[in-house]
Structures are given as structure tokens and as C-alpha cells.
Amino acid sequence: MRNLLLYVLLLGFAFNLNAQETEATDDYNKWQIRLRVISVIPNESANIETIGGDVEINTAFVPELDFTYFFSKNWAAELILGTAKHEVDAVNTAAGNIDLGDVWLLPPTLTLQYHFYADDFKPYLGAGINYTIFYGADEGPVADDIDYENSFGIAFQGGIDYMLNDKWFLNLDAKYIFINTDATVNATSALGATVGADVDINPFVLGLGVGMKF
């Protein structure tokens, strides 16, 4: 992921040096919309009280919608909307591996972007914030109940738009989103205890999609 972002940065600056002057006077669209298919790949870890161990969270493949508003030709803000369902397991604990069911994550993310221009290729870099909402939790066969706290985090982004014509384009996008939650697992029936955990989810989000300017 780090190498991908570095590649996009270097590519963007190289294109920008050659194309900035010739593109500077071109018109630009204020709005664009993209629809992507994304893979949400958690880079998870956890500090689990009492029973120790770690956490495993599966990868999810879901659609994502985003809207971008351009303040100028190069600077824009993007609102990213998508939701994903993840299976959760506590592993290597004192009580063995525990199936903790699944939970839905809704992490609306707002990034500030800088766009480069080089003919039909338009790389961009971005950074911003997200607010992650946890909902629809299914506690699985062991726990009586699980509560996940919503959280704020930061996000980094890099990608490339490839223009098909003046209106439509293809998009390749990569993000790293910092997501942390305090989870409380009520396992009184099975373990005779309520267990707290500080969980980092921190997913890589890789997307491929199509966009439209208007």
C-alpha cells in the first residue's frame, strides 16, 4: 500500500511538471460522481482484557459511492459512502477461538484532494477524516451481546482517473482508513464474564469503478 501511494505521488508530480502550464487555462467541472466496487481489507489487532488473544476480521467486497466537489481545477473535496459486513473472531484467547458473529460498518469519509493533470490520466492524492458507525451486530453463538463504540479516525487516499471522453472516466482508488473501537462482549452465559477489547480495524480499501463529471 505504501509503495502504491508513493508510485501515485511520483507519477502525479512527473505528469504535473509536463502538463500544468498547458492545462492551466482549461475549464473544469465542479462536480463528479463515482461508483466503485471495493475490497475492504482489515489490518486488524486487538488488546483483549482478561482472556487475552487477538482478533480476526474478514475481508469484504461491496459497492461504494462517492461525490467530489472541485473548489478549483486542482483542489477538491470528496465524500465517500459505503457500508460493509465483517465477520469477527477472537483468536488464541485463554478460552480458545471464539466466534463473535458479525457487524456492519458505515464509515462515511471526507477527504481533501489535490488533482494532477496529464492528458487523459488524472492522478490525485487526498487525506481526511472518517466517522465509523457500527450497527446490525450479530453476537454469534457464544456471546450474549456485543457493543461496539462508534469512532473518529483519519484517512489517506491515492488514485487515478482515466478519461474515456469529456464526461465519463474509469477510476482506480486506494485508501487506508484508521478505525478503532472499544468493544464490550457480554459472555456471562458461556464464560461467566463481560470482556472489553480495544480493537484496531484500520482497513486498506482498494476500489475500481466508473465516474461521471457534471
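(ticket continues) Second input and output from the same batch:
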Amino acid sequence: MSATALILNGVLAVLLVVALVFGWRLERRLKALRDSHAGFAKAVADLDVAAARAEQGLADLRAATDEASEALADRIERATALAAKLDERLNRPMVTPPPASPAAPVARRDEPAAARVERRLKAEDFERLLDREAQVSRPVESGIRPSTPKETPRSRARVDDDLFEGPAEPPSPGSSFRARR
């Protein structure tokens, strides 16, 4: 073999080695691209699952909102009806009972409400009643203050629930409205 053939074979071998190196680097890059494509496909699948869950959550939230609005509408209707009843009772004219005779029977709680004499307080009577209760409930001048209950969301909720309950039995003439709970 001549020297030119050896040189050409050497150059060809070097070119083959360079091509192998480039092919190996290209294979690594293609492998990385395939892996990133698989990761991208997995990310898209996860995103699709998350979107489906979000849609289901929105549907559940919409259903809960509809249910809550229906319940609220019912409560508002009941509150309106109770407010109308209360307004009707407050606007009734005050009926004064006939003078009591010693032989007249005393009204009992088990009598029907129609048989009892309805009584309505005037604003001045109500203010006097509140002043009297305030005087009675004042602590003795011993320096001890009565503990006042803290208003919490739970106690406020109990008061709100009382607003939506049906009418309670009317209080007896001598009872305090604050005593009932």
C-alpha cells in the first residue's frame, strides 16, 4: 500500500470516529427530547385530570349554592311571615280587661289564647319596665361586677335560629321577657 492510501484510510478513520461521536451526541439529545416529551405528555395528562376535578368541584359548588339559596329563600319567607305576624300582634288595639271581681276566675295557661285577654304595653310602660329591670339587676355596691357573657358567633347563631322558629307560647303577664331562653 502506498502512503496516499494509508493517509486516506487514516483520514477516513478519523472522519468515521468523528461521525460516531456526533451520532452518539445526537442519540443522547434525542433521548433527552423523548424523555421530556414523555414528561410533557404526563404533565398534560395530570393537567387534564386536575381540570376534570375542578369541573366536578364547580358543579358541586353550584349545587351547594343552589341548595343554600333555596334554604335561604325558605328562611326569608318564614321570617317575612313571622315579621307580618309580629307586626299584626303589635298593631292590635289594647283591650282593657273588665274590673276584676273577687269571684272572677283567674285566666290559666291551659286556656285557649282567644279566651285570654290580650294586653299591649305602651312605649312608656315598656321603658319603665326596662328601667325597673335595670335597677333590679344592678350589682350591690360591693365592687363586684357581674360577668357579662361574651358574644360569640355560636351565641349569635343561636339568636338567629330563634328568629326563624315558630311563634312561642305568649309570656305570662308577670314574667320577664329576658328570663325566657
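Agent notes: The mean pLDDT is 76. Residues 59 and 65 are 10 Å apart (CA to CA). Closing as not reproducible unless the customer responds.
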